[in-house]
Amino acid sequence: MNNADAVLSKNKNDLDESKVIVFLGRTGSGKTSLFNLLSNSNQPLGNSVSSRTKKFFYKKFHDVTYIDTIGFRDTENENDHKLKVVLFLKEIRNGFDIIFYCIRMDVFTSDEANLFSEVYETVLTRKAYDNSCLLITFYTRPDIDEVNTLDSAERQRLLDEFRCNNRYSEILDYFENRIFFIDIKQEEDLNNYSFGSTKYIQYKALNDMIFERKQIVYKHLNQFIEYFFPERFDCENMKTMRDIIYRNDELEQQLNELRDIVSDVANERATTNFYDILRFMPITNMFIDVFGMS
Ligand SMILES: Nc1nc2c(ncn2[C@@H]2O[C@H](COP(=O)(O)OP(=O)(O)OP(=O)(O)O)[C@@H](O)[C@H]2O)c(=O)[nH]1
Ligand SMILES: [Mg+2]
Q1: DSSP 19
Q2: Record keywords: Iron-sulfur included (predicted)?
């Protein structure tokens, strides 16, 4: 771990004064790449398949604190993950200012749209829309500067193209001026090629293009960060862990069953054996969390 970056839980007081930006999104959607670009960091990137970032990181740079998060729907089950995000976000004592929600352009599917709505409905609440900005990553077309320029014809054309996809029209209408198209592909390590070889020259040209596109993204996002000042999102607005857990019928049923078993054991009417209780181990931690929280 880089010294300048730190696991957030070590000192949350650092977050009190600066503007706070949180990256959210599915595993492999480019959160850490953006975090690195904007906060001048060098956190390891993932391979888009398995989850890379396992901890929440933050770094303050130019009076803005950037927070990188673990990706949605990684190896753990979804509910568990959401609980982790809630617990974590709730610990940002003074709330946060901007959420950069990342979605890969090449997987702009209904599944992604559902995940997006679910995160806002069940975790953050819709109030967080006011603080959010949609980052559509893996944008490959050449007109990356134009599509990020508000009111440009290219941007309108692209947004109309997206609007044809009904699942997103509501989101696009809402975020209209808070959508950015991002391409921050990782540069090739030229040290792997002998200087002056054909491969070296090819990759050098590719790296120059990647660098140029990164600079464009950097320029637009920094302009946005500078001018976008929503009212700070108070983490107390988020759904509680209890809300999230009880939304899931299966878990609710399991919790009821567990309560019955515990009550049988307590009243010495136990008809169940040890293995019945072990069966509930994965949710026991959540159970403790729920009742330990309030
Ligand atoms: N071409 C392209 N590649 C990208 C872009 N954003 C990220 N990548 C690549 O996608 C892979 C995953 O990127 P990360 O930034 O690690 O994604 P993440 O959202 O932090 O992933 P987790 O930490 O697993 O949740 C890396 O190989 C990046 O180089 C982009 O906008 N364009
Ligand atoms: Mg990451």
Answers
A1: E
A2: no
For residue 257, how far is its CA from the centre of ligand 1 (angstroms)? 42
Determine whether 107 is exposed, middle or buried from the number of CB atoms within 10 Å of its CB (0-12, 13-18, 19+): middle
* 137 touches ligand 1 (CB under 6 Å): yes
Q: What is the CATH number of domain 6-239?
A: 3.40.50.300
Tokens read off for 91? 């610990």
3-state secondary structure of 98: strand
78-106 confidence digits (pLDDT tens):
666 667 777 777 777 678 899 999 999 98
The values of phi and psi at residue 159, to 5°, are -65, -35
Give the separation between CA 103 and CA 157, rounded to whole angstroms.
Answer: 19
For the CA of 46, the closest atom of ligand 1 is 16
Break the chain into its structural domains and give their ranges: 6-239, 242-293
Helices marked H in the chain — which ranges? 31-39, 78-90, 110-118, 144-147, 153-163, 166-175, 198-227, 241-247, 249-266, 274-278, 281-293
> Could you report the per-residue pLDDT of 141-159, keeping only the tens digit for each?
999 999 999 999 999 999 9
